[in-house]
Design brief:
It is a single chain. By secondary structure, the chain is α/β, with parallel strands linked by helices. About 45% of the residues lie in helices and about 20% in strands. It is built from twelve helices and twelve strands. The protein has a six-stranded parallel beta sheet, with helices on both faces. It has a six-stranded mixed beta sheet with strand order 7-6-8-9-10-12, with helices on both faces. Helix 5 (about 95-105) links the parallel strand 3 (about 85) and strand 4. Helix 6 runs parallel beside helix 7 (about 170-185) and helix 8 (about 205-215) packs across helix 9. The longest helix has 18 residues, at about 135-150. The N and C termini lie far apart (about 60 Å).
Length: about 325
Amino acid sequence: MKQIRTWLLGLALAALLVPSAAFAADIKIGFLVKQPEEPWFQVEWKFADKAGEELGFDVIKIGVPDGEKTLNAIDNLAAAGAQGFVICTPDVRLGPGIMAKARANGLKVITVDDRFVAADGSYMEEVPYIGMSAEKIGRQMGEALFTEMKNRGWNMDDVSVMMTTFEELDTTRERTDGAIAQLTEMGFPADRIYKAPIQQRMEIPTALDAANTLLTRHPNVKYWLVGGPNDNSVLGAVRALEGWGIAVDSAIAVGINGTDCIGELEKANPTSFYGSILGLAGVEGYESSKIMYYWIKDGKEPPLDTRTVGRLITRENFRQVLQEEGMD
């Protein structure tokens, strides 16, 4: 009998010593993204899984391309036993509805990449957010353009800037505004920085149209610096420059994200696309999942606003940088 009591006491003590490990094994975190086919979100998922493997929680990955699928996914997460989720919403205006659905299901929420917007158009700052610093990323792009212009020895009097823009979205406007601010602060004349507004979506064809319109108005520029809110918006401008017969070495183009330009950097014959500011999707996927884990496990409240910056990738270094960031 004494041996049995001792054995039972040992079991009880063991249970007391490992409650967090047992609880960790039961933690399930959803990771919802608006475009699961995009490399950016695939990398976020990859690093969310990495965090789960290291810390011992499960990641439930779901693509949510529209509002209906988003709300259904939240119900499905609750039914699967998740305690919280990370989300890049397909529409920032879904924020209030997402939060209402999450509260009804008792789920914690962290937003990644895009912040929720309230009915009055303001950010829902009470919802924890992890994403790139749009302004700083833009400034990195502006600095890269200016630095490469100086490295090539161009006379600044012969140079103009084509900035494709999409100002309907706060994040993209902050990127291009940041680039313009950096260029002017480094000494580039503001009156030779031209915006090429993109209509509807930031894709190569729409950016090409916007760039063609701008080039029609300024046909005599000798050298172009080209920027924009993402890679495709800059690649569209590059295609427009090519259509106008502008020489590859007469333009320097830098994008943002670093995920949609790899094929361009791999081309045997270089184009005027010099490089991109690589967003650190892996950092965001890993950190958001880890923060959610500790919020669920320990009740540790996450910071409300966490920002990351990027790294410049070019033809010369992109393979090494992608490998270092776990994106190759």
